[in-house]
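Revision sheet: structure tokens.
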Amino acid sequence: MQTNRLTKEEIFKWCSIPKEELKNQPNLKTKLEIRKDKATVMTELGNMMADEVIKHNNQGIPTKWVLPAGPTDEYAIFVERVNKERISLKNLWIFHMDEFLDWEGRPLPVADTYESLEGTMNACFYGRIDDELNVPEEQRIWPRINNIDYADEMCEKLGGVDTVWAGIGATGLVAFNEAPRNYCYRLTVDEYAKGKTRIVELNDDSMLAMSQRSFGCCLDRIPPKAITIGFRIMLSAKRCIYMVATGTWKQTVCRIILFSEPTTEYPVTIIPAYVPDVTLMTTEDTIDHPLAHEMKGW
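Predicted:
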């Protein structure tokens, strides 16, 4: 399975469709759920997470997730329900997407800082859950440079993942599975889909986006490398929920998610070819696009 690079004509066409007409388009690659704003999306996502754990607990089966360290607003809703309703997370397994590394490919200190995704999750997720309900530490699976195959081995042992809760980058990254751009080798979609946990050097556009969003475009604050789970783990899932509610920054990638065939140019497009249930949850302003309002004929 392989597609060529997307053409600008394709992208312009997809971006020019009025948002009111998107759900009626033929051959959408994912389901599309549009809510009025980010708060509404994140509240619904947090409730979906809690409902899935409750359902599996009642069935006496484990819940297996892939979670990002961003977005995180949905975790507040989830944690509130866990503590209030006494929802046990003792049978929840979490595969964390990625972790930053320094320029030499080594982990940074675990702390409540931007550079530590594990620290971020401790602060906004694990650290807010009552101890008697919390996910056991051995079930919080982080990609590690000293045991790089562990996450893939555990995913296989557990029989795959239930849900990938996926934040998406503006150029289609999922975790740090970015578009491979090394001119010395080319990867097909099938090869990339089988990708395992690995150390990566971040693409320049991702570093620019992260630095602009958080640090006034101070590029030196962004670690240049990361360790990321590959698509091998994520494509074992029964469903994937794309969580995209950041407005203009993601308007184009949302259109590509909906219409594009699988391509390594936008890795997020690979998921619907392998995961049976994929939904894009987004907001009114994120799914809109300026090309759909562009004046023509003047």
